[in-house]
């Protein structure tokens, strides 16, 4: 954490502290928020949520005129697998540490550079004795990708960068031709996946992606996967030269998803439309439908063109230390606190 | 109908007109997408392992299987024969089902045979098995290449890497889950 703060201080960023409990949380259709109740001295109650990301607060600060900010703190996500069963490796904890940073006047390319430099900066400063904590041969082998991560950190060899379209081309699919729900579903069915009529575009996309593409990402060295289909990026801007794709990227290393970034959407009307759409989708998935954050929507209209990224700090520590399970890098993992073992 | 929530190692399901045993699985929540379960499935007839991803909550045709404790007797070119110690019934299991775990088979070893519709569809080995080392080369003195392991041969003919202090005739324990050396034993 110290290294992360160092890095951003050197880069001239301002740290902002953002609320963890809010009235209007993120609307991502597939994230479940922790919900609680806020009461005043007379017992009048209001619904409160724990944030899944400090994104809204950060963007409000961007709208207020700040241009290089970061927020380092806890975020919460419910209904995710947090304890290991039958030898499965755990990569989620319901509360985890996230670093988000934003740059006004820049796009996602700048963030790709930031991310790569940040990870290398952190890896270089860690004494080698902490890397690959277990030294038996088995964990060494499983940590091969880590080995390359730290080697790369030292030698400065660049990470791989590949677009989603190129990744699909490698398995013989032209993504341009399967950007609708039905064409993607057909492609998935042809490749032997079970597709049901209520599977969305994203569901079909992920069935192919998680089986054939993701396991191969970031194996030799960290990989940046960029330019997602526009429907998969609610808060990001379309590519000016091809509006079917959004300026979004994710970082994969050693089979783990490490970070997610966008060139931010700055059109409040479009923002409202997408949030309402997601809210509706949440309803149809039987999830909670929290209120829209109106301050956030108007803030979007006051923002300069900006780019922002969220990176999971616990997973970064896993990569650098070679831990195989997130439980190994958290002092009090939820699986122990809640007695799953 | 059961769903992805019932997925566990060695569960058998009917899929695409074939039976598959679950070898490995992992829950994944990709970048703000829905939850999925990534699986490695073994076709119980051909032994071929494939990968597939299911959406959480999707219905799966998981079948009920019977597990029988049986003792390994011998193998020929295509099958391994097991015997029920109570009834003396013998069952021939196609070697494809056993695949590269064949090297774990030694006479008298007790395994769980997974039976569906009267046919063996999978074998569950004990998690740890002890074997006699049939041949271990001497550690080369003055070898400064930092090698900490050497390859030895077990009584079943299987070759495995172990620490250099292991000698011929000693008994060692192998984990069938990782395929690796665990410890030396005197039992």
Describe how the helices and strands are arranged:
The complex is a heterodimer of chains A (341) and B (187).
Chain A: H1 2-10, E1 14-15, E2 21-22, E3 35-39, E4 45-50, H2 55-63, E5 68-76, E6 95-104, H3 108-125, H4 137-142, H5 144-155, E7 160-163, H6 164-170, H7 181-190, H8 201-213, E8 223-229, E9 238-239, E10 242-253, E11 256-263, H9 268-284, H10 294-302, E12 306-312, H11 313-321, H12 334-337
Parallel strand pairs in A: 1-5, 7-8
Antiparallel strand pairs in A: 2-4, 3-4, 5-6, 6-12, 8-10, 9-10, 10-11, 11-12
Helix pairs in contact in A: 1-3, 2-10, 3-5, 7-8, 9-10
Chain B: E1 2-3, E2 12-15, E3 18-28, E4 36-43, E5 49-55, E6 59-62, E7 66-75, E8 79-83, E9 90-94, H1 95-98, E10 110-116, E11 119-124, E12 128-135, E13 149-154, E14 159-163, E15 171-175, E16 180-185
Antiparallel strand pairs in B: 1-6, 2-3, 2-6, 3-4, 4-5, 7-8, 7-10, 8-9, 10-11, 12-13, 12-15, 13-14, 15-16
Which key features would you list for this structure?
heterodimer; A: 341 residues; alpha+beta; BirA Bifunctional Protein, domain 2; nine-stranded mixed beta sheet; three-stranded antiparallel beta sheet; 12 helices; 36% helix; 22% strand; B: 187 residues; mainly beta; SH3 type barrels; OB fold (Dihydrolipoamide Acetyltransferase, E2P); six-stranded antiparallel beta sheet; five-stranded antiparallel beta sheet; 1 helix
């Amino acid at each position: 954490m110290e290294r992360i703060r160092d890095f951003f201080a050197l880069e001239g960023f301002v740290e902002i502290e953002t609320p963890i409990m809010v009235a209007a949380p993120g609307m991502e259709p597939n994230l479940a928020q922790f919900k609680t109740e806020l009461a005043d001295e007379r017992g009048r109650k209001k619904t409160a949520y724990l944030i899944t990301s400090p994104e809204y607060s950060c963007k409000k600060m961007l709208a207020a005129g700040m241009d290089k900010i970061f927020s380092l703190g806890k975020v919460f996500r419910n209904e995710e697998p947090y304890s290991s069963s039958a030898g499965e490796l755990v990569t989620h904890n319901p509360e985890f540490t996230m670093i988000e940073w934003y740059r006004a006047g820049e796009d996602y390319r700048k963030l790709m550079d930031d991310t790569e430099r940040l990870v290398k900066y952190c890896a270089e400063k860690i004494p080698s004795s902490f890397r690959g904590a277990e030294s038996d041969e088995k964990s060494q082998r499983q940590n091969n990708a880590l080995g390359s991560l730290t080697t790369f950190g030292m030698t400065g060899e660049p990470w791989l960068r590949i677009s989603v379209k190129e990744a699909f081309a490698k398995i013989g699919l032209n993504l341009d031709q399967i950007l609708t729900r039905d064409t993607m579903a057909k492609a998935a069915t042809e490749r032997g996946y079970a597709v049901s009529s209520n599977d969305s575009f994203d569901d079909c996309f992920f069935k192919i992606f998680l089986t054939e593409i993701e396991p191969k990402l970031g194996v030799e060295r960290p990989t940046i996967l960029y330019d997602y289909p526009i429907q998969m990026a609610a808060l990001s801007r379309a590519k000016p030269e091809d509006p079917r794709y959004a300026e979004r990227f994710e970082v994969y290393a050693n089979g783990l998803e490490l970070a997610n970034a966008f060139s931010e959407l700055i059109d409040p009307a479009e923002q409202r439309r997408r949030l309402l759409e997601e809210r509706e989708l949440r309803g149809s998935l039987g999830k909670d439908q929290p209120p829209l954050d109106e301050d956030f929507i108007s803030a979007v209209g006051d923002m300069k063109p900006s780019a922002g990224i969220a990176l999971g700090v616990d997973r970064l520590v896993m990569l650098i230390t070679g831990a195989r399970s997130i439980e190994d890098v958290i002092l009090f993992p939820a699986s122990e606190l809640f007695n799953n073992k | 109908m059961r769903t992805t929530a019932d997925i566990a190692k060695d569960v058998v399901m009917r899929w695409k007109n074939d039976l598959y045993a679950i070898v490995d699985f992992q829950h994944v929540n990709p970048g703000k997408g829905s939850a999925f379960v990534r699986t490695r499935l073994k076709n119980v007839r051909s032994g071929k392992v494939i990968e597939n991803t299911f959406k959480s909550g999707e219905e799966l045709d998981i079948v009920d299987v019977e597990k029988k404790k049986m003792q390994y007797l011998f193998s020929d070119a295509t099958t391994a024969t097991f015997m029920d110690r109570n009834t003396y019934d013998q069952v021939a299991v196609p070697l494809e089902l056993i695949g590269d775990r064949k090297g774990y088979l030694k006479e008298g070893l007790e395994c769980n045979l997974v039976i569906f519709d009267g046919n063996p569809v999978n074998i569950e080995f004990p998690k740890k098995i002890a074997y006699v080392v049939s041949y271990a080369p001497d550690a080369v003195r003055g070898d400064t290449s930092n090698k900490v392991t050497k390859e030895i041969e077990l009584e079943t003919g299987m070759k495995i890497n172990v620490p250099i202090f292991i000698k011929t005739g000693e008994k060692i324990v192998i984990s069938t889950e990782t395929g690796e050396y665990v410890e030396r034993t005197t039992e």
